[in-house]
Amino acid sequence: MTTTRRTHQAVRLDWPRLRARLDALGRVGALDGGGVCRLALTPEDKAGRDLVVGWMRDLGLHVTIDAIGNIIGLRPGLEDGAPVMAGSHIDTVRTGGLYDGNLGVLAGLEVVAALNDAGVTTRRPLAVGVFTNEEGARFAPDMMGSLVYVGGLPLAEALAVEGIDGRTVGDALSAIGYAGPAPVGTPAVHAFVELHIEQGPVLEEQGIAIGAVEGVQGISWTDVIVEGTSNHAGTTPMRLRRDAGYVATAAAVVVRDLAARMGGDQVATVGALELTPNLINVVPGRARFTLDLRNTDEARLQAAEQVAFAEIDRLAAAEGCTVTRRTLARFEPVTFDLAMVDRVEAAARARGLSVRRMPSGAGHDAQMMARVCPTGMIFVPSAGGISHNVTEHTDDAHLEAGASVLLDLLVDLAEPVDPAPG
Ligand code: GLV
Ligand code: MN
Ligand code: MN
């Protein structure tokens, strides 16, 4: 115990170094006016990956790329075996910020750098994982790389997924040179810890520095296509319309009302909506929209799905339109290992940081890793609860505090070995 504490004190984060890496990665795919766009498996994602892989090699990590493009950087321990892994993602939504995903990866690298600086070896190996296509904004489902890693989706199925631009995951992965030779799912992981921004308002509103994440809410993603008849906007009487655009926009209202009626944790979003032909004087003959439903309670999420789907069918039938639904992602709520939640809480307290237990509203690679090993998540506050938005922001003091908790947790789990005396 004394030994561990002494070793811990010697391992120190270099905050300016972590800040510099966050900023450098934030310049890859930077958007005019702020924020970043590094949709999964685009040239921008490749450039971000190349930067991170370069940093991993500079830190002496042994880097492997697997067949779904996950990047694992391994720092050997005194003993072989399953590493303690920190990880997250560096792909972003089209309007991403500097921290969603990137923080967990780069803070993991900073822990490695801090161990290197202090000359500390750990008994278990330590790894930093960068998982492919966490966002799911280009290719569904989200958390794809980590899902394949834990055996939740066959590799061939993932590679065959078509993105919003018609390109498959397999093609895009090969095009950026990240279809690697390593078998997916290796190495097996001893424990996984993901540091992430909260992406919601709770920590900031309550003035709390650290969230000890207890689990992730269930996610239901559906692609809906409505077919009607395109016709002249001026001449087609209302009684003769088969307006796919009306059905889609009415559906958005219906699911919004449904979430309000259900209350609690239920949320509902129509995030993508395309009308065809999308012209001012043409009744839309076709509409495509996405439905994102989430709840911390599986039974309530199922109830929301049933009502939403029935209402959409009813709206379409009344308008003489047809509906085709396709599930893009469906994940039940996940509960993290209680001992890991306790560890996050204790590590925050030991640093004198305020902490509360909370669920995650967003999806994370950690929810997939939880299927195969004890997994924990550390949240830090998001200014104004804003995320998936170029103005996403977290104060430096909060970022540094979160990284410190990650450091303490990883070092504890990996078990530092005191340097031999003399
Ligand atoms: C993924 O980041 C999601 O929660 O949508
Ligand atoms: Mn994320
Ligand atoms: Mn995200």
Automatic annotation (TrEMBL):
Quote the SUPFAM superfamilies the UniProt record gives: Bacterial exopeptidase dimerisation domain, Zn-dependent exopeptidases
| Enzyme Commission no | 3.5.-.-
For Zn(2+) 1, which residues are the binding ones? H89, D100, H196
Q: Name one Pfam family in it.
A: Peptidase_M20
Q: Which CDD domains match?
A: M20_bAS
The UniProt keyword set, sorted, is: Hydrolase, Metal-binding, Zinc
Can you name this protein? Hydantoinase/carbamoylase family amidase
| Organism field | Roseospira navarrensis
Q: How is the cofactor bound?
A: Binds 2 Zn(2+) ions per subunit.
What family does the entry list? Belongs to the peptidase M20 family.
InterPro entries per record: Amidase_Cbmase, Bact_exopeptidase_dim_dom, Peptidase_M20
Which Gene3D superfamilies does the record associate with it?
A: 3.30.70.360, Zn peptidases
Q: Which cofactor does it need?
A: Zn(2+)
From which residue to which does any coiled coil extend?
none
Positions of Zn(2+) 2 binding: D100, E135, H388
Molecular function (GO) terms for this protein are: hydrolase activity, acting on carbon-nitrogen (but not peptide) bonds, in linear amidines; metal ion binding
**Main EC class the enzyme belongs to:** hydrolase
